[in-house]
Design a protein that fits this description.
The chain contains 14 helices and 31 strands. With about 600 residues, it is of the alpha+beta class. α12 packs antiparallel against α14. The protein is globular.
């Protein structure tokens, strides 16, 4: 165990986590140059296209240190975006140390601070690494100042490197061996292993990724999952390189995979503890927290025949993405589907894209919403995240919405623009904290519903890309809520209903009506698209009808002949409108949810 180091790489978005992981893998000779590619641990196409890490990925490396010993380095590369913080938290539970990367040109940013706090919560040894020292804009001294002032870490312990060019990566490897602690635990104690992730293999069933804290796991051994109390027998175990490498045992301090013929996905809980039924551990490994979804949206298959496929796909995806929550749902316009909970809009976007690509499904999503707390006049308390379950306004006493504490780190010159953005989004209690020279941290309390749509995009626009954002949930606060219904030809479309703060209801309804007007095809009759709160119409757009020039054959003569023909056409269109059914295309639903104003 003295020669094992379990560590993960944490940082703000785009500070070079995956690039540094690539260089560490190359320096340890874990991959041949001919098969190497950038972002080698990011296995999904969507990660490569967007240049972001979505899933934590682990790999075991062999490193020959300068002291002559050979070390096993179990590296976990984590995502940087706030929407995937649950992945980071699970990864940190299985490590003793963390490399905290700071970009030499950007300095300490919001997610850097947030990740440091999570590391300290799990009592990890944190080693600062200053990356991108090859850039012309790199300022290592300023980065060291910020590590000292903003993070409270020893700046002289920081290792400088350029992950892109490979400069200083050997120093990072030596620092991992000398400054991060080895794991603790006894191979003779009762078995205790943390399930920190899982994958689904069509041929082998569920593959568990585990960190053995105490005792050891061997092939053929019986194991018990402490949460579900289900027993299995280990068919295969081993370590994780770019492929699975089978072995005979995993002892205390090791990270690896376990295949135990688990076919039923619902038996697995990420964060569960594996033990030996013959000599069980006294208690599960503490510290795991269930992810709390903050954004809710309903997913429906475009074709109702695909509903069973969607159900299976969500089960498999839940195994690989423990932060996803879902339950059955139905809509009169879109049929059967699932109400899903996500950690943010990027998480929603990624899950939708993974379902469409990996499982070949076509989906329609309802407008994202948050969970509101509602007190009824009879004293009853209910939680509503779906507009279709919103009670009659006459029965409501008070409504409460979730508030977050948002932290924005920016250069000083953008303070005015960010303050304006906070005020526009109903932000209160804005505070300033001047960090190092020329950098400000702004904190404000904002309704979560205001951050959902395009807050992050707007922040990047007003700060010219320099602003970084992080948030944490604080409490529920009283609000004035209204349910906005969208009516197409007088019929409400329940998938487009939404719960909005009353002040913003007209603007939101107008935007929805405009988008629908541009995407619903013309019919033989006029179509009214309206936004309504209860019986009151607050916005309207009209799709004009296809017109045939019925007066073309009148060339002269009395005007009454033309009028008679026009009246006849008008009556026909009125009759058609009463019986005409309007098909709303999928693009219309999608265009309404896009926030690219």
């Amino acid at each position: 165990m003295e020669n094992i180091r379990n560590f993960c790489i944490i940082a703000h978005i785009d500070h070079g986590k995956s690039t540094l992981a690539d260089r560490l893998i190359q320096n340890c000779g874990a991959v041949e140059d001919r098969v190497f590619r950038d972002q080698i641990l990011d296995s999904m196409d969507i990660e490569r296209e967007r240049g972001i890490t979505i899933k934590s990925n682990s790999i075991s490396l062999l490193y020959d240190a300068k002291d002559g010993k050979r070390y096993i380095l179990n590296l976990i590369d984590t995502p940087g975006h706030v929407d995937f913080s649950h992945e980071v938290r699970r990864s940190l539970m299985s490590c003793e140390g963390a490399l905290l990367i700071v970009d030499a040109s950007q300095g300490v940013e919001a997610q850097t601070v947030a990740n440091l706090y999570i590391s300290l919560e799990y009592d990890l040894e944190v080693l600062p690494v200053i990356n991108k020292i090859d850039l012309p804009a790199a300022d290592v001294d300023r980065a060291m100042e910020e590590i000292d002032a903003d993070l409270g870490l020893d700046p002289f312990q920081a290792v400088t490197c350029s992950a892109k060019t490979g400069l200083g990566v050997d120093k990072v490897l030596e620092a991992i061996v000398t400054q991060l602690p080895p794991p603790v635990g006894s191979p003779d104690a009762p078995t205790q292993a943390l399930v920190f992730d899982a994958q689904y293999d069509a041929y082998r069933g569920v593959v568990l990724l585990v960190r053995v804290k105490e005792g050891c796991l061997v092939t053929g051994q019986s194991i018990r999952l402490m949460h579900t109390e289900a027993d299995y027998e280990i068919e295969e175990l081993g370590t994780l390189s770019l492929k699975r490498l089978p072995g005979k045992e995993l002892s205390a301090g090791s990270v690896g995979y376990v295949i135990a013929g688990i076919k039923n996905i619902s038996d697995i809980n990420i964060g569960d503890t594996i033990t030996d039924p013959a000599r069980p551990a006294a208690e599960p490994i503490p510290g795991y927290r269930e992810a709390k979804p903050v954004v809710f949206s309903s997913m429906y298959p475009v074709s109702s025949d695909e509903y069973p496929d969607l159900s299976k796909a969500l089960d498999k995806l839940k195994l690989n993405d423990a932060a996803l929550a879902f339950e059955k749902d139905s809509s009169s316009a879109l049929g059967f589907g699932f109400r899903c909970g996500f950690l943010g809009l990027l998480h929603l976007d990624v899950v939708q894209e993974r379902l469409e690509r990996e499982y070949n499904l076509s989906l329609v999503l309802s407008a994202p919403s948050v969970r509101y707390q509602i007190f009824l006049t009879g004293g009853q308390e209910i939680f509503v995240d779906n507009p279709s379950l919103y009670p009659e306004p006459a029965n409501i006493d008070k409504t409460f919405e979730p508030f977050i504490k948002g932290m924005v780190m920016i250069p000083e010159r953008y303070v005015g623009a960010v303050m304006e953005l906070f005020m526009e989004r109903r932000g209160v209690n804005t505070q300033f904290n001047y960090m190092s020279a020329g950098r400000v941290e702004l904190t404000a309390e904002l309704p979560l519903a205001e951050v959902l749509y395009d807050f992050y995009d707007r922040l990047k626009t007003v700060t010219q890309g320099y602003g970084s954002f992080d948030y944490e949930m604080i409490e529920m606060r009283e609000t004035d809520l209204a349910k906005v219904d969208i009516l197409v030809n007088g019929e409400p479309v329940d998938a487009l209903s939404q719960l909005v703060h009353r002040e913003k209801s007209r603007a939101r309804a107008l935007r929805y009506c405009e988008r629908l007007k541009n995407t619903i095809p013309k019919q033989q009759f006029k179509i009214a698209i309206q936004g309504a709160i209860g019986g009151q119409i607050i916005a309207r757009e009209t799709i004009t009808a296809f017109r045939k020039d019925v007066t073309a054959k009148c060339y002269g003569g009395d005007i009454s002949r033309k009028r008679k023909l026009l009246e006849k056409q008008k009556a026909g269109k009125k009759r058609m409108k009463m019986v005409g059914a309007i098909e709303i295309p999928q693009e219309a639903f999608v265009s309404v949810l896009r926030s690219d104003d």
